[in-house]
Amino acid sequence: MKQPVGCLWERREFLRSSAILPLAGAFAGVGGYLPAATTITWPFHGAVLNWRHGQRVNGGLQITVSGIAPLEYLVTVNGRPAQRAGERFSAPVLLQERVTEIVAYSQGIAGRQEHRIRVVWDRHSFPRYRFAIDDNAFFLRDIARNNYSSLFDCFYLARLRELHSKYGTKFVLNIYYTTGDDFDLSQFPDRYRSEWADNADWLRLAFHAYADQPPRPYQHASPQQLASDFDRVAEQVLRFAGEQSWTPTTIIHWGMVLPQALPVLRQRGVRVLSGYFRKSGGVWDVNYHLDPVRSEYLSRHDALMDFDVDIVFSKIDVVCNSLSPEKILETLMPLVDDPNTAEIMDLMTHEQYFWPFYRHYLPDHWDRVEAAIRFVSERGYKPVFLHEGFLGAPE
């Protein structure tokens, strides 16, 4: 896959091809010194920046760009002379547009070098959170089988409505097409359409996968398979719930999609994809096949833009079914003090753990969910849908 401008592989290639290499032997003969290639080290290519990363001035956000360049070289950043300290350089840059290109030029004995990156300014950012629930199918089967007079006669939706009433929380339910031989979305009645519409301001439905099994269904699936499954779910949701309740997904089952399948999602309105971006067995996983450099960055930051596919990747901060209420608070607490993770809280859980018949049922699952929502609400975070505006903030 194409690597980002700021990735380590490209930096190494830059160093090999740079004009300084003919003089490398001469420099190496003086204390073994090999001059650095001109490289912007902060911000990262594709970084999503907000008011926590700089200073609001003159209708923009002023940030301090930093990097490294060969000693004694003159460095400019977006045309302004940079300050030098050894190999390091720094310079102020004012962000006034949604996307800004940052260019560092250096000039010295071995000629001229440059490094270009682009960053995104989250201009109207504010502390916010989203809550997504994955693997939904059981509640739809329950409503269809019992022919309830209201959607909220189903305990699951009733409890979600209680949480919405108490905290204002907005929920996206990522759904399957089928639970297996016993139920699929074509069996869900359309007589609740007005009720779906009445609650669409806080309750939405989105594609997750065709079914729970097999695991990792799109890790190596073709773009055509992903498109077919997505469209099948969309067709049924639009039939029984209406357009106002349908939303582009932000989480694909298992968080793995081939790079060549990402355009399929973007063409269907997907603007954000959330994942864990964590290592498992020494390999980055639940990361949509992003390279290790970007995956490591996302493990420590809220979001990262992929300009090639026009999708923002978001780091999930907590999975409620995996942690006790106490551990949820311990996990979230340090995030609010880090400017790279404090602005957006990406919260989620999985539907099956709410149901007593499920083999891994969690009797305290609702307590876990409420612990996460209470934590962010008490600290002033506002509920949003990530697909609206830019990561839930106005564009």
Index terms:
395 residues; alpha/beta; Immunoglobulin-like; TIM Barrel; 2 domains; six-stranded parallel sheet; five-stranded antiparallel sheet; 24% helix; disordered N terminus
- Per the principal axes of the C-alpha atoms, what is the gross shape? elongated
The residue-averaged pLDDT reads 92
- CA(first)-CA(last) distance: 29 Å
Q: Please name the CATH architecture of the largest domain.
A: Alpha-Beta Barrel
In the predicted model, the low-confidence regions spanning at least 5 consecutive residues are 1-31
| Quaternary organisation of the protein chains | single chain
- For the record, the CATH class of the largest domain is Alpha Beta
Put simply, the count of helices is 10
- Into how many domains do the coordinates divide? 2
Looking at CATH, which topology of the largest domain would you report? Answer: TIM Barrel
Outline the structure in words.
The protein is an alpha/beta fold. It has two domains: 8-121, Immunoglobulin-like (Sandwich); 128-383, TIM Barrel, CATH 3.20.20. Helix content is 24%, strand content 29%. The chain contains ten helices and 23 strands. Strands 11, 12, 15, 21, 22 and 23 form a six-stranded parallel beta sheet that branches. Strands 1, 3, 4, 7 and 8 form a five-stranded antiparallel beta sheet that branches. The two termini are 29 Å apart. Residues 1-31 have low confidence and may be disordered.
